[in-house]
Amino acid sequence: MRRYLIAGNWKMNTTREEGTELAKAIAAGSSNATATVDVLICPPFPYLIPITEAVAGTQVQVGAQNCHFEASGAFTGETSLEMLTDVGASSVILGHSERRHVFGETDADINRKVLKTLEKGLQAVLCVGELLEEEESGLTKSVLDRQMDGGLKDVSAEAMANVVIAYEPVWAIGTGKTATPEQAESAHDHLRKWLESRYSADVANATRILYGGSVKPNNAEDLLSQPNVDGALVGGASLIPENFLPIIEAGVKVSS
Ligand code: PGA
Question: Which of 42, 93, 214, 218 to mutate to test the pocket of ligand 1 (most atoms within 8 A of CB)?
Answer without folding.
Answer: 214
